[in-house]
Write a structure and sequence with these properties.
Elements: H1 5-18, E1 29-33, H2 38-53, E2 60-64, E3 84-87, E4 103-106, H3 113-118, H4 120-141, E5 145-149, H5 180-200, E6 204-209, E7 212-213, H6 224-233, E8 238-240, E9 247-248, E10 251-252, H7 253-264, E11 272-275, E12 282-283, H8 284-295, E13 300-302, H9 323-329, H10 337-351
Length: 380
C-alpha cells in the first residue's frame, strides 16, 4: 500500500492550490501524530514535496506512530529521508521530544466505526489523553500552531433544521451509545482545546472533517467507500447494510488537505472549522450505484449487518455549512464525486494489486509490524 503516482498528483495539486500559504512553514519543525495513517500520510508527503521543490530551507518532520491503524508501507518511501524522524510512540503514554517544535498535528485516531467500537478505551485515550500530552508539549515548546482533528460526528444526528450544519450547532449526541467512545471523546477533545487556548494561549485550531476519502484510506477500513470498493473490485456485489436512504456529503482528500493546511497555517486561534464538500449530498444507494458505475460490471444488494450495533445512533444526514471556512480560510472544495471515485479506484487497483478480481492479501487492519524494519513487533 505504498506511495504512488496517484498520491503524488494529489500532493502537487494541494501545494499548487495552497500557493504562498506554504511559505509560513519554511524551515520549521513539525510534529505529526498518526503520520502512517490516511490523513497523516498526506501531511508527510506535502512537507516532503515542499522540501524538495518549494522551500529553500527544509522543514524537519517528526512522526509519532504505533501503527494500530496506519501501516508502514504507506510512508516507507520516506525512510531514508534525512529531514524525517520516525518514532514508535503511543501518544496516550508519556513521551518527550528534544529540540524545538513549531507545528503540532494530532492526526492519530481510530476513526472507523467498526474499529472504534471494538477498541473503545484505546479510542478515548488517543482522543483525550494523547491530545492532552501533545498540548502540554505544545505549551512547553511554545509552538506557532496546533491542529486537532475532531470530526463531524460531534454533531451526532442533527435536527433537519440544522442541515447544512454550522459550527455553532451544539449537536444531538448519545453519551452512552456504541459510537459514544469516538463522538464524546472528540467533543471532550474540543473542550480541552478551547481551554488550553484560553488558559495557556496555545494557538490551537480544530477541524471537523466531513466524510473525507481517497487514496491512502485502507480498503479494509470498513467505512462505506472502501467497503463498497472492496466488494466491487473483488468481483462481488456491493452490499448496502441499511435501507440506502441515509445521506452524506463526501469530500476528496486533496480538497480536505487544502482546508487542513489552511487552518494550521492561519491565525484563527481557538476556532473550529467544518472541512468537507457541500456540493452534493448523496444517499447510500446513490453512492453504491456511483461506485458500481466507476468500477463497472457490479450489482448492488441490500444485506443486514451481523453487527447488531451497526446502525445504532447512525446519523440520517450529514452535510457541512462551509461559510466560516470560506470566509476565514479561503477554503473552497473543487473536486466532484465522480472524479474523486475514479482517482480512489485507480489508487486501490495499484496499491492492492487487483488483477482479474484477485487482490494482494498482505494487508490487515491490526498490522503489528513496526517501521522501518518491517519484521518485529513495535519497539518499546
Amino acid at each position: 500500500m505504498s506511495f504512488n503516482n496517484v498520491i503524488y498528483e494529489d500532493v502537487v495539486y494541494i501545494c499548487n492550490e495552497l500557493g504562498e500559504k506554504l511559505r509560513k512553514a519554511e524551515g520549521s519543525t513539525w510534529l505529526i501524530s498518526g503520520g502512517g495513517g490516511f490523513i497523516g500520510g498526506y501531511f508527510l508527503d506535502i512537507l516532503d514535496y515542499c522540501n524538495r521543490y518549494i522551500f529553500k530551507k527544509p522543514c524537519r518532520v517528526i512522526c509519532l506512530e504505533n501503527f494500530i491503524s496506519g501501516i508502514p508501507e504507506r510512508i516507507s518511501h520516506l525512510g531514508d529521508n534525512r529531514n524525517f524522524k520516525f518514532l514508535n510512540r503511543d501518544v496516550a503514554k508519556p513521551f518527550s521530544i528534544r529540540g524545538k517544535v513549531d507545528y503540532i498535528v494530532h492526526a492519530a485516531s481510530i476513526a472507523s466505526p467498526t474499529f472504534y467500537r471494538k477498541y473503545p478505551i484505546e479510542t478515548i485515550e488517543t482522543n483525550v489523553t494523547g491530545l492532552k500530552n501533545l498540548m502540554d508539549l505544545g505549551v512547553k515548546k511554545k509552538v506557532k500552531s496546533f491542529l486537532f482533528f475532531s470530526t463531524s460526528e460531534i454533531y451526532g444526528n442533527p435536527d433537519p433544521k440544522w442541515i447544512p450544519t454550522p459550527e455553532n450547532y451544539n449537536g444531538n449526541v448519545s453519551c452512552t451509545g456504541p459510537r459514544a467512545c469516538y463522538d464524546e471523546s472528540k467533543r471532550l477533545g474540543e473542550t480541552l482545546c478551547v481551554n488550553y487556548h484560553s488558559q495557556y494561549d496555545l494557538p490551537v485550531k480544530v477541524v471537523r472533517p466531513f466524510n473525507v476519502f481517497g487514496p491512502g484510506l485502507r480498503i479494509d477500513d470498513k467505512r462505506v467507500i472502501p467497503d463498497f470498493f472492496n466488494n466491487a473490485l473483488n468481483g462481488r456485489k456491493i452490499e448496502i447494510l441499511s435501507n440506502g436512504s441515509p445521506t452524506r456529503s463526501f469530500c476528496y482528500i486533496s480538497d480536505a488537505m487544502c482546508g487542513f493546511m489552511s487552518a494550521i497555517l492561519s491565525d484563527c486561534n481557538g476556532e473550529a472549522f467544518n472541512i468537507g464538500n457541500d456540493q452534493l449530498e448523496v444517499s447510500m444507494i446513490g453512492l453504491a450505484k456511483a461506485v458500481a458505475k466507476t468500477v463497472g460490471g457490479t450489482d448492488v444488494e441490500y444485506k443486514q449487518s451481523s453487527d447488531i450495533n451497526y446502525l445504532v445512533d447512525n446519523p440520517q444526514r450529514r452535510c457541512p455549512d462551509l461559510t466560516k471556512a470560506r470566509k476565514l480560510l479561503g477554503y473552497e472544495p473543487k473536486i466532484d464525486l465522480d472524479k474523486a471515485l475514479r482517482r480512489t479506484m485507480e489508487w486501490y487497483r495499484k496499491a492492492y494489486q487487483f488483477e482479474g478480481g484477485v487482490r494482494n492479501e498482505n494487508f490487515h487492519y491490526r498490522n503489528w509490524i513496526c517501521w522501518p524494519c518491517f519484521r518485529c513487533v513495535p519497539c518499546t
